[in-house]
Amino acid sequence: MTISVIIPVYNAADFLEKAVCSAAQFDEVKEIILAEDQSTDDSLEICRRLAAEFSKVKLFQHPNGENRGAGASRNLGIDHATSEFIAFLDADDYYLPNRFDAEKELFKDPKIEGVFGAIGTEYLTEKGKHEFQSKFKEMSLSTVEYPAEGEEVFRGLLSLTPKTFGTSFHLNSLTVRRDSMKRNHIRFNEALRVHQDSELIIRLAYHCHLKTGIIDKAIAIRGIHDDNRITKIIKYTPQYNQRQFLFWKSMNDWAVAQQIAPEYRKRIYLMYTSFDLSLKSGLSKYGSIFLEILKNPDILKTKYRFTYYNR
């Protein structure tokens, strides 16, 4: 198998070389695509140096060196990928030596279009550690709860399985057939500045046959530091709700356009609507909630039903 690893780069000067070296160690990795997104630190110079040192490393920028966000940068990498498979890596994270062990076996089955696994967490700064642990439960291993494949993965990502599957898996652990992405027109939604990875993963799980790989130990490490966007998130604030609303609105637009099964379309609609309602205020908010409950009583089953309404 041949793999193109796509790394979006924005202000990652302190971490980029480690990320690139972690991908370059694999014989299967034929190219490492750096999509530089108008960094304001020394990232571009480091990209150029790495491209000169490693024959695998290829550097690309947006037209006129513009800043377009992580989604557009990953799409830039997809556009230039030439290998049979595509994998992703954030510039402040790194792969472990077992990163593609499961893939080498599972992709012998042509039915399997994507494989994903577990990632670990490393605290790179004390401030980042404090911010992360103050907002999220300890996650030494981010993974799904049990092995799954095909439609079960999609159902799990929508929390429709009888037992807890996990709400998502990290993009760093995903390897996917390039032809499958092309055939199903799967790209990152560039209009989303956050959550574009989660949005793509759900759509990918619907269109492609995904399968769990190594889920009981890490195959990649996520670095937590002062500038992680994830550590800046404060749940249930208007800004947080707005971001979730945009994410689920994009999912709802996709579900309607694709005319996916009613069960799935309804689930996505309820998630979208719960965040839409959370952004309203005053008496109109409670009137809208009442009318939505009359129309869709199942909205009371979403885990957001009171958390957002009462804030």
TrEMBL record:
Which keywords does UniProt give here? Glycosyltransferase, Transferase
Q: Which domain of life is it from?
A: Bacteria
Q: Has the keyword Glycosyltransferase been applied to this entry?
A: yes
Which residues are in the Glycosyltransferase 2-like domain? 4-129
Q: Enumerate the InterPro entries for this protein.
A: Glyco_trans_2-like, Nucleotide-diphossugar_trans
Which Pfam families does the entry mention? Glycos_transf_2
SUPFAM superfamilies membership: Nucleotide-diphospho-sugar transferases
Name the Gene Ontology molecular function terms of this record: hexosyltransferase activity
Q: Supply the name of the protein.
A: Glycosyltransferase involved in cell wall bisynthesis
